[in-house]
Design a protein that fits this description.
With about 230 residues, this protein is of the alpha/beta class. The chain is built from ten helices and five strands; from the N terminus they run αββαβαββααααααα. It is globular and about 75 Å long.
């Protein structure tokens, strides 16, 4: 009888393992889907996949309406065609990008990965587009011939607060700083604190205001200099 119970337990465990394995295989296949070219919905400067056409066109419209302006602001011509991959769940986004916490990220100057976020997706797409233009600016100004490994090392020294603040500003993701209790209480974050996304992600609260102040105090050219000087 004891041996029979052991066999039943092993059988149940085996079935559970098969179910879990099948579930993981399905999720993995879904997450690894890289959107074949015939699913890409094009606009003048972008190609987008991952969501239905009506939603895709809304996001593309926001991107196109900011394409020339952001290029002008950052004094560099954006990539002529940028691919935007939208993921409708975090598992797919995380598996494709290796990033399990962010809602979007650029892959060089010509690719954007974006987690679907309802009505905010278009503005988030503009934020990530601003990152791609910033990258293009930095690559364009790097010594030639460009060594990708050396560039990556140098790029890693760019302050997080500056990288995110510029994108927030260009995407018009503005917040009244005094609406945040730590600001209204006078507990202003240091730049060192803003350099760490893990410490309350406060850069996303005040990044727009930082760039607004820099431009007001020292002018737009100094903002570009900050980027180019890392």
């Amino acid at each position: 009888m004891s041996r029979l119970r052991d066999v039943v337990k092993i059988g149940r465990s085996f079935v559970i393992l098969l179910i879990v394995a099948a579930f993981l295989v399905i999720l993995d296949a879904y997450a690894r889907e890289r959107f074949s070219p015939n699913l890409m919905i094009p606009s003048a400067h972008f190609e987008l996949s991952g969501i239905e056409k009506e939603k895709a066109e809304e996001v593309l419209q926001q991107l196109e309406s900011n394409y020339d302006r952001i290029g002008h602001d950052l004094k560099i011509h954006p990539a002529t065609k940028i691919r935007v991959y939208v993921y409708t769940n975090r598992w797919a986004y995380g598996r494709a990008t290796g990033n399990w916490t962010a809602g979007g990220n650029p892959e060089g100057p010509g690719i954007i990965h974006l987690l679907w976020n309802g009505k905010n997706t278009g503005q988030n797409a503009v934020h990530e587009f601003a990152h791609t233009v910033t990258l293009r600016l930095l690559i364009d100004q790097a010594p030639q011939p460009l060594d990708p490994v050396e560039f990556d090392k140098k790029f890693a020294t760019l302050p997080v607060w500056l990288w995110e603040a510029v994108a927030l500003y260009e995407a018009n993701q503005a917040h009244n700083p005094l609406l945040f209790q730590y600001m209204s209480n006078g507990k202003y974050p240091s730049l060192q604190e803003l350099n760490h996304r893990s410490k309350g992600a406060k850069i996303y609260d005040v990044g727009f205001t930082l760039v607004e102040f820099i431009e007001y105090k020292w002018g737009h050219d100094r903002l570009i200099q900050l980027l180019l000087k890392y």
